[in-house]
Batch of 2 targets.
Target 1
Amino acid sequence: MANRERQRPAERPAPALVRLPAVLVNLFPSAERRVELTSGTVAEIIDALDARWPGMRERICDSTPAIRRHVNVFVAGERARLDTPVAPGADVFIFTAMSGG
Amino acid sequence: MADKVVLLVGTRKGAFIVEGDRERRAWRLRGPFCEAWPINHVVGDPRTGTIYAGGGNAWFGPAVWKSTDMGASWTHSSRGLAYAAGEEPIRSVWSLAARDGRLYAGVEPAGLFESGDAGETWHHVAGLQQHPSRPHWQPGGAGLILHTIVPHPDDEDQMWIGISAVGVFHTGDGGETWEPRNRGTRNDYMPDDQRYPEYGQCVHSIAMAAGMPDRLYQQNHCGMYRSDDGGKSWQSIEAGLPSSFGFPSAVHPRDPETLYLIPLNGDTAGRYVPDGRAAVWRTRDGGHRWQALRTGLPQENVYFGVLRQGLAVDRLDPAGVYFGTGSGALYASADEGEAWTTIAEHLPGILSVEAMVVGD
């Protein structure tokens, strides 16, 4: 959390803190579980993730386009869609659904 | 240089690689790979040794995995492996085929994709879905899956594909246009006077005879067939077999008259090997006569099945034959099916087996 609290230029909004599930991070060798991103919507957050780790968009989203059926994105505690706004400093969690066999 | 045989195994929980010596006596299994995703098909490009694994994960969707170091490390991509926005998204990759540096992928819902850069990016071979029959395609029990891709060995414009509950289609112009090739194959789930439609038959697998591109063998939901005209017409070869139902088919690497099948007891009877006894059935004369090959296979209380991509033949002489069961066992024959050994027993349910011969 120390990074989030450091001084920033006044004109730059606080980044959102995005947490990724281990099972997703495992698919991208250089990916990290926590990443700070400055973006306006969930779709833009996912674009930024895909720019860092190419291919991550296809794992989180389908071609509808929509967040995949068994993936959930929460923004500030609420389940989100691709067009959900992400306020500066928001907490964003990406989870896989409880499923399988 | 000694050859070795590499078996590429797709399962419900990951891909496995089983390496054997040229005599096919000693086997070493590695895996699971691909993060334990369901992997429907694993193929090797014998020119490069690159291994590709196609599947789909309930969380993360479809992908083709790739290893250029015999499974030591893997990458994955589905860039471009998508239908247009608003259409039903792709759930899974079901089949792969490599030809002359190009890679093809069959997917669910049924469609064909092509990669010219070794699986890094994909584009849709849209001509197949533009066929006028497309609105009438109905999914089979495993979904609307394009599970078989048979490229012509010499003519890059020709290819056959198989879609469950839809049938066989052929292109002669590199995928721009396609025509159904199902004449003579039966659909037992239609009224008596409609059992030989233009399409709608449930192909389970197709195999091209060695050195005879116009000779195709087919295992269908309703019967076994041979075509000697590239699939324009099919003749039943099911007489002498214990049932008309089964999934896989595999041809001999050199003899166009030799075909291997694994008939199951029937589509409504459990889909087990008949009589609780495992057998691979072989014809040496193009399907006129059949022989059950049982030596070394379990002959008591056997209730497994073998799925549409679960039977393979290598190119050595004598040819090796391999099959993997839904119960996770892998069997091998080093003598064209005469005798069998068990080379793995407790894998996840096996969805596909392919054999690649590479220099040691």
Target 2
Amino acid sequence: MCLGIPAKVISIEDSKIGKVDYLGTRVQTDFTLLEDVKIGDWVIIHAGFAISQLDEKEAAETIELIKENIVSTEKLSDDERAEK
Amino acid sequence: MKELRSKQAIQSLLKTISQKTRSLSTPISIMEVCGTHTMTIHRYGLKKLLDQAGIRMLSGPGCPVCITPNEIHEAAIGLVTEKKNLLLATFGDMTRVPTRKNSLQKIVPAKDSQIKIVYSPEEALGLARDNPETEVVFFGVGFETTIPSILLSVKRASEEGLSNYSVLTALWIIPPPLKAIIDDKDTRIQGFLYPGHVSAIIGIEPYEFIPREYGIPGSITGFEPVDILLSILSILEQIQKGKAEVTNEYSRVVRQNGNPAALALMDKMCSKEDAHWRGIGSIPQSGLRLIEKYEDIDTEKKYGLRIAGGSGDLPGCLCGEVLRGKILPPDCPLFGKKCHPESPVGPCMVSFEGACLAYFKYDRTERASE
Amino acid sequence: MDKVNLELGSGGKLMRDFIADHIIPTFKNPLLETLGDSARLPSGIAFTTDGYVVDPIFFPGGDIGTLSVNGTVNDLIVAGSDPKYISLSLILEEGLPWKDLEKILKSIQKASKEAQVAVVTGDTKVVRQGQGDKIFITTSGIGECIADPTPENISPGDRIIVTGTLGEHSLAVMLARGDFGLEADVLSDCAPLRFLLPVWQMGTRWMRDITRGGLATVLCELAEPLPYSILIDEESIPLSREVRGATELLGIDPLYLPCEGRAVMVAPEKDAAIILKEIKKHDLGKGAAIIGRIEGKQAKAGEVLLSTLSGGLRLIEPLTSELLPRIC
């Protein structure tokens, strides 16, 4: 029940109902729980409702973390191989 | 964001985790609270990979279907089998939970009554609007992730004066059972993966009592394989530094203060009460009930149902032990024998987020002793 | 069980048990007991039958008429026979709009032409309004056996091939029902698999169409009697973007979604690449891929294992209970 998917907002009406797109599938979504949503934003949808907005800056930082980890473990493997 | 599933990233993070656990006394026991995390771990085959890296994952109580006592399921079954022209709208996996009155999936409804699987409480509300002559009952079960949307359907029904819609509520709050689990001295948990989407609603503060009062590290976690590994890494770092806190690995979604609109809804429309959690027992201030203003939309009050929690588990079922992280599913004597997905004895084998189902589907051959 | 319940028709365990515990013992005979998609009769004829109750009757990419022809034709093809004739039995609900019936008949005509089969006999019944849901169709089919499937020859190293992307039929039907407020540009994959007939002469040992229960269930049925296990590579399973998106949104595993124009087959390693090439020559086969292989003795016999996107390993189980009702 914690199933939540990141999807892109493609339409919103004044009533705060709209649609999001996830890999080409469009779902009717209710944006009442979010303050400032615009078309093009990424949101997390759960049970037909958008519950949070994706922060692109934080997302980019998470990706950076991953890339750094890959680099450092590769370096470690290189060092291990060099010692042998 | 395919990096969050990439083989390379996963292998690399596992390597770092292994390095860190080498200098600690293993295995490190970490509880993933949320059932969706359990599913992710098993579905991606991470369980074994984590075992090999020195991490022992324990499943927690974050499966709303699993912890809702049978008596509430039986009340739903009673409604749809006894009342004519009643539509019971429910999320999919609720229908397979076995009770003393059979399961929603197996029973035959009363005349002109039916069970409909819905994806959203709004859908249930829509059914009530479109069918004014039919009584619509929405089986509203969930944690803080789902509760706000259930409450919105109640608010709207109230504002529109829809007299044929009501919600059979089973609304649960996450932080209280964690305290109950930690207080149980038999369970040794060294870190928590906090549920990412519950946290999107409630924010970070509700978990802070755990590092503060108990010194146990934790991290708010997203749902991709890499999210889980990053959080585990954060927990290991906290252990190494000897500094327990609540870190937010899922910062792209979870804000410090959660979702204010959602929190306001819960605050205004509900009161907290002590609630009985299947397998764990009564936990103070762990459930939400609709306030008196919404009495007519509260199924229990509307139909005069009296639902007492606590005695409905089927004999031999050890879901409670699993939900508290005391045993792994394969340790249950019924696992795979009397209890399997086609004939489940307990909800952990039924729910899409149930630990027993995850093990059975994906890692059946594993035993705790291996 | 004292009353029939919906699960019985789902393609899951209840249905399998029903067949094993009630159908087989009641009608004991060796032809039935092979439980193939078609029965291979002694005279070199293959014979099959299927009932169609899909709801709604019209969906993107097809209708109950198209289904009723292709479903039966495909059951003959995967049993190693060249489909020739079908029968058409209609059970109509009083009040069904005439233009709907005409549309369906036209679809049946078009589909039989495409599948190169003739409708040679049939029946029409009408039931009172409320006693049947618009239209139910049963078709039986006869084909000439052109090859002998040899599942007994399946050996370690054999490759597993699927003929295209999975689950589009299920998604198209769900969308047509208006379930879950979803929209997507998806057409049912319903189609005749005639273009697969040549591969029977190219080394294919065994074939099944991927209907109720989805690919996972079919693979489990394949694995069960084998002294080997099956290993599937998650990354190579062909899924369209729309099916990937919709199934993630709904929390459904696409491996359990029925198709109506896709098959899975087992072929020796040395023949697999050529067979794949042959399949991909056709429009309907362009999404084909080798997705796994038969494994030797390392893993447990009869198991289906999935090597996941993240490099882990997990079990694939047969469908236990119904995901989506009345998909075919």
